[in-house]
Amino acid sequence: MSDWKEKSQHARDYRDASLAKVNPPIGKLPDPLPLSSQELPKKYLTAREYELTHNFDAIELLGMLRRRELSSEELTRAFLRHAVLAQYAVNCVTELMWDEAITRSRYLDSLSEPLGPLHGLPISIKQQHGMRDKPCHASYVAWIGGPSVPNTINDILYASGCVFYVRTTEPQSTMQLECNNNITGLTVNPWNRDLTPGGSSGGEGALLGMGGSVLGIGGDIGGSIRCPASNNGVYGFKPTSRRLPLSGMKCTMLGNETVTPTFGPLTRSRETINLFMDLVLKTEPWRHDPTLFPKLWTPVKLDRPLKIAVQWWDGVVKPHPPMIRAMREVSDACRAAGMKVVDWVSLDHAKAWNILSRLYFPDGGEDTIDLIQESGEPLLPLTEWIIKQPGVKKLSIQELWALCRERDDYRAAYAAHWSATAAHDGHEVDVILCPATPGAAPPHECSRYWPYTAHWNLLDYPGVVFPVTFVDPVKDKRDDTYVPMNDQDRFNHELYSPERYVGAPVSLQVIGRRNYDEKVMAALEAIERAMGRDETFRPKL
Amino acid sequence: MSDWKEKSQHARDYRDASLAKVNPPIGKLPDPLPLSSQELPKKYLTAREYELTHNFDAIELLGMLRRRELSSEELTRAFLRHAVLAQYAVNCVTELMWDEAITRSRYLDSLSEPLGPLHGLPISIKQQHGMRDKPCHASYVAWIGGPSVPNTINDILYASGCVFYVRTTEPQSTMQLECNNNITGLTVNPWNRDLTPGGSSGGEGALLGMGGSVLGIGGDIGGSIRCPASNNGVYGFKPTSRRLPLSGMKCTMLGNETVTPTFGPLTRSRETINLFMDLVLKTEPWRHDPTLFPKLWTPVKLDRPLKIAVQWWDGVVKPHPPMIRAMREVSDACRAAGMKVVDWVSLDHAKAWNILSRLYFPDGGEDTIDLIQESGEPLLPLTEWIIKQPGVKKLSIQELWALCRERDDYRAAYAAHWSATAAHDGHEVDVILCPATPGAAPPHECSRYWPYTAHWNLLDYPGVVFPVTFVDPVKDKRDDTYVPMNDQDRFNHELYSPERYVGAPVSLQVIGRRNYDEKVMAALEAIERAMGRDETFRPKL
After folding, report:
1. By the 8 A CB rule, do A216 and A123 touch?
2. Where does the Amidase domain lie (chains A, B) (predicted)?
3. Which of A540, A459, A458 is nearest to A506 (CA)?
4. How far does the CA of residue A362 sit from the closest CA of chain B (Å)?
5. In whole angstroms, how far apart are CA A535 and each of A59, A319, A508, A510?
6. Across the interface, do B515 and A398 touch by the CB < 8 Å criterion?
């Protein structure tokens, strides 16, 4: 076995040893595994475990914990066993924290008062984010066994009383909207294992989509929270950068500030996002992390019916029929509820992608490729694809400045474009409704069009993904008359057939102006109410 | 005459032609000019002009204009003539806007309602900031005759009803805390022409210090608002970056984001700063400039007596006796008013300067030096001095990232250091009281220690300068027993003798945490009240 394979085997042994702690063990799964993993929890978990992990969102569970209708230990054991099942089914785990989680839950149960707003709640964390006293490889073989650095959000969640119980997978370099690497291998979609769960927070997406978590933390620089939320039919929120602390993310190119990633939650309910943002910001993280703007989570009340712009397409790649149907259904509901619905005019999104992809790798990808080559692990096709986007190259300082000016000019043009939507009626568009991906979760190695999420990273606009429907073979026929506009459009168009996407969730995205994070969440609430969803709505699992 | 001298003469001819419009002309000034220019306005302006330009702050003038006790034209003519006098005395003008200003003031006088919150008020602008339909050289001979770009703040001020009447000088490269360049030459201090007015907004500082403006706009990346405010005994506010729009600043290295400049006001009263911030932010500039954080000017009410930390020195260079006396007098007054006064412990400010000076020129100064060489104009000593700071060099992308990490680590350490001040009594320090300069305005070419202002640019902390006292030959004796700690300290120590600094204003600075801009202004109000100053206080002119 070559060196890198051996090293990579160590990481899998570490994972497997952690999984082996599960007690009682999970029964043997069928071989081959079924296309959908959604029936497995009912079969392989106890009825009580199934109930606890599937029937509630984080807020309901926290209420039950606070009222002592439920012990943290019982809940934690249920989620621990669900995580093991999810690993067997979709390969989304890098480490199970059996002993630590049970010890922690018992400690929390022993307290006479709740420790904080997350008292007793099990939370899943993307492996790359690091975890105190835990190794962190962040998907690179070279970093296997390497240390974590403290992660401020993890520390805040822990101080708020949560239980960490599982760490989840990410793709090589974390610059993929899928979830494959040379250590843990391929994570698959719990709705259809032939499809990708998305990425880079793909382990989180798959775990939440299977019911194995109610709150997971991911990171997003091109869609890495929103794409897996969308592909797995759960909620995912990417705030504007500089609201949440970022320390503890292990990645290459640290110190690069051409485009800024952010952490954010994947959840089973809209309100869990508000809970998360509120509790993190209440700790005033800016007092320790001066990159942040000091602003508490400040829910906004809409003072008039929303004005929503629907981005039917971005002018480059036409979304698949189920995405179009979802936009039609949601926008019809919004219109019926008295909102104003207009069409969004996309402003040269192809140019934006060209700027963004160059901003991702101002060193031409050197830092990332060097780290991959250090261990000898192979460069995976989707890693190579993103690093080799047209124009990506190692820049001089002056070229970097010129590129930053291109970015800033584009951002300013987009701001003016948005402000101009007030021209007709004096009210600018409140939010954009759009897909987060040009189709439902695609087959593996086909996620080659990022801009439905990444465009908003270039602009640093906040975005929330919410589940809408599922691919429907009757309603979502392939349009064989469609003539693709370009190669990217053709690639995407040819991907689609209802049979290929069977069972796949269809989600949409709400986008707001930079730093209008609270407005995005208020708009999502209004939209979901228009869709007939009340506080008790939960995505189908 | 060499090419660059000829070109530079064109710019002076342009200026002189603009000054020649003044009517009636200013009488011939004494030759040689007196050391202090402060007695000239009374002699060379009419009594009414003197009254209008010297006896009120912007807020009082705006009230008089609104109540029509005063026409904008009369006021504008007074400030225009004062600006010409100031040019003759201290050489602070690049262009007088005689015709435009009078036309504008007459238009405003003709309206039945005020145009906006600045209706009729003459405002001075640093030349580098650009002005619609005006050339802008930004101190570089190569750029003489070059175009301005639109300046958002200017547009906001104009839409608010102001009158632009004069554009003012800045030093070569604008990276000097003095005010000399190869086009307009040396601007001197109106209190003592042997001293520098500071820079880079030195023309603004000198003009305000002589009574020729009540509101000027400058820019600050190392002290360029606060140093001239301090040297000339007026108010100057540097907000946290990303509060005010920056577009329209003409300078080299555009696109560089290692350290961010900001515009800000120089004023004759504290409340004029609040007025300026409030009116600019009320226009919601973030809707057009997405680099800004959307937050209105939100005055804070202090809920307990201030806790002030006095930075007696920064651990590197000991401030001169008048600065120490000023800190003692102000802190005594604060203590007597019931505030808690503690000592600030400076956290390795020498290291901070090393980081910052390298951040200023990630291209090793190439862009700036190339532009200077393009025309053949000489590199001035203070420009060379800042570009040749130890460690400044052209960086690779990876070296740039490493330097940005150094910056971020230092910022995080400082935030922790500040937060730790809550350890003893549960209340962290609200603001730091410190000098803005290691002494009063020094002799020309001696401004070689920036960190009393620039340190807070590295940290991006807001700071306001306010006038305190004047160098007093009796109280501020040189301390001949002092043993300098290092070469910089020796240079500064040896500069001082009360005779050399005769007449120089002594100012101090209030610093707050990043983005606590409104708190800084609330603290300044509390401090000035403790000093016995009410709303009617104006700096001595």
Report:
1. yes
2. 74-520
3. A540
4. 7
5. 11, 30, 19, 18
6. no
The one-letter amino acid at B256: N
In the numeric block, which tokens belong to residue A525?
Answer: 């609430």
Q: pTM of the prediction? A: 0.97
Nearest to A401 among B254, B414, B419 (CB): B254
- To which residue do tokens 């501020």 refer? B476
Q: How far is CA B59 from CA A448, B237, B524, in A?
A: 59, 17, 18
Q: Does B159 touch chain A (CB under 8 A)?
A: no
CB atoms within 10 A of CB A107: 13
Measured between CA atoms, how close is A374 to chain B, in angstroms?
17
pLDDT tens digits in sequence order for chain B, 541 residues long: 689 999 999 999 999 999 999 999 999 999 999 999 999 999 999 999 999 999 999 999 999 999 999 999 999 999 999 999 999 999 999 999 999 999 999 999 999 999 999 999 999 999 999 899 999 999 999 999 998 888 999 999 999 999 999 999 999 999 999 999 999 999 999 999 999 999 999 999 999 999 999 999 999 999 999 999 999 999 999 999 999 999 999 999 999 999 999 999 999 999 999 999 999 999 999 999 999 999 999 999 999 999 999 999 999 999 999 999 999 999 999 999 999 999 999 999 999 999 999 999 999 999 999 999 999 999 999 999 999 999 999 999 999 999 999 999 999 999 999 999 999 899 999 999 999 999 999 999 999 999 999 999 999 999 999 999 999 999 999 999 999 999 999 999 999 999 999 999 999 999 999 999 999 999 999 999 999 999 899 999 8
A404 contact residues in B (CB cutoff 8 A): 255-257
Query: Which chain A residues contact residue B418 at CB under 8 A?
Result: 287
Computed over its alpha carbons, how large is the radius of gyration of chain B? Answer: 22
Q: Enter the DSSP assignment of B307.
A: E
Q: Which of A397, A408, A414 sits opposite B362 (nearest CB)?
A: A397
Q: Fill in the DSSP letter of residue B217.
A: E
What amino acid occupies position B29? Answer: L
Structure tokens at A74: 């019982």
- Rounded distance, CA B266 to CA A124, Å? 52
Contact between A211 and A55 (Cβ < 8 Å): no
Catalytic residue, from A72, A105, A126, A230: name it.
A126
Strand duo A93-96 + A163-168: pairing:
antiparallel
DSSP characters over B59-108: HHHHHHHHTTSS-HHHHHHHHHHHHHHHHHHH--EEEE-HHHHHHHHHHH
B200 is catalytic: yes
Closest to B125 measured CA to CA, from B190, B215, B61, B13: B215
Q: Is B37 designated active site?
A: no
Catalytic: B224? yes
Task: Please give the pLDDT value at position B148.
Answer: 83
Catalytic residue among B18, B148, B160, B200: B200
DSSP string, A170-229: --GGG-SSS-EETTTEE--BTTBTTB---SSSHHHHHHHHTTS-SEEEEEESSSTTHHHH
**Which stretches of B91-188 are DSSP H helices?**
98-110, 152-159
Q: What is the DSSP letter of A135?
A: B
CA dihedral B361, B363, B366, B367 (to 10 degrees): -80
Nearest to B520 by CA among B269, B298, B258: B298
A163 membership: H or E segment, kind and range: strand A163-168
The CA dihedral of B368, B371, B376, B378, to the nearest 10 degrees, is -20
Reduced to 3 states (helix: H, G, I; strand: E, B; else coil), residue A77 is helix
Tell whether omega for the bond before A239 is within 30 degrees of 0, i.e. cis.
no
**Taking chain B, what is the end-to-end CA distance rounded to the nearest angstrom?**
41
pLDDT tens per residue, range A133-184: 999 999 999 999 998 888 999 999 999 999 999 999 999 999 999 999 999 9
- Interface contact B412-A289, CB threshold 8 A: yes
